[in-house]
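Notebook B, p. 112. Complex prediction, attempt 2.
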Amino acid sequence: MLKKRIIPCLDIKDGRTVKGINFVGLRDAGDPVQLARQYAQQGADELCFLDITATVEKRETLIPLVKDIAAVLNIPFTVGGGINDVRLAKEIIKAGADKVAVNSAAVKRPELINELAQELGNQCVVVAVDTKRLEKSASNPPQMQKTKKETESGYQNTVFVGGGRYETDKETIAWCKECETRGAGEILLTSMDHDGTKNGFALEITERIADQLSIPVIASGGGGNTVHFVDLFSKTQASAGLAASIFHFGELPVPQLKRELEATGIAVRLIASS
Amino acid sequence: MIAIVKYNAGNIGSVTNALNRLGVENKVTDVPAELREADKVIFPGVGEASTAMSYLRERGLDLVIQSLTQPVLGICLGMQLMCQHSEEGDADCLGIFDTKVKRFPQNKGLKVPHMGWNVIHGSTPMKNSVLMNHLDGSEDVYYVHSYYAQPSADAVAICDYILEFASVMHKDNFYATQFHPEKSAKVGEQMLKNFLEL
């Protein structure tokens, strides 16, 4: 049986992890390469690196870092954050990443997804979608055809870009479908209403998207304890769950999460302790 | 020296990295003499079957690979290209393994591509192969593929996703895995070691 994936996400700036990551047994927890190796040894199924370096020429720090990570890591990893052209995406893949994630640039110019899929293959292209539930009002007229359910409930799932700062005119489910049609290999769905709350994943929107798409959906935002991951995998068809701080700060170590998921009957990859 | 076949497919660097981690000397090459003289050859790849086959034929690498006598390991697309034919771009392939490559049918609830960690082998007894030394087939490995090889006499291990497909194959000096041992943590490293120790 295909296993549900657990994906720790690391924020990177100028080649270093951003927040003071408190990882037991690491002398330099700011070193993404050491951290990556540690997560792989713990049984993480995949890693996601999000580069938040503000400079335009981020490739100067990012490309060498991707090479260093690829040299030590024996599991797949995705690199995202400000990727806005095919050239940079190709460099990242060539440096050893398995997938690239695009977000704002794909909303701005959706053809980017087609180009990436054509150049790199669908399996290398992750589209990250940041979604937020907005109340509908007269000043916020529906710009796209809504499903019956949304019309009745008076809200609309809306795509945000720029790290969640800017509202777009895209309805989330329609945008995810468009991403799939254009050649995305996976959707990384982050609910901004849930992100950082540790109150659980956005189950409803995750399930609606996972049910309507044939590509895998990675759910992100809100995972705070094992029960949240149990809910995610038992109530939605999400293929993977992504989280950051609960793993980094040792609140919920990956081996513990996986053992507890296994105990509730959710298929996960367990590794022999060594 | 381990030679890694250089062609227009992605993911070749991952194999180089994996061999480097195991401390094994390796070289990425498309020079026929270097491929023939290598102790072992790895034929990796992520990409599209018909364009990959065209590339190999233009350079005569199809004939080189078919005629190799040392151990050869095909990975993912490499494995599929070692079969007779692939539905992907209606490509005639190398014909080393007596089977065909088809696309997964759409199946409600099961995503295509088959992406992520799944077992090497399902429930039926697995054939013996040195590639599976120290492994029993129940281990999880990393797959990414939308096409699959139909199980045939050359199949060592068979995985079930939507339908049964060959996950490990072996015929004479040719070995192959549908999954990516170079991305499959310790289990993948064990398989690569098994191949390197042949």
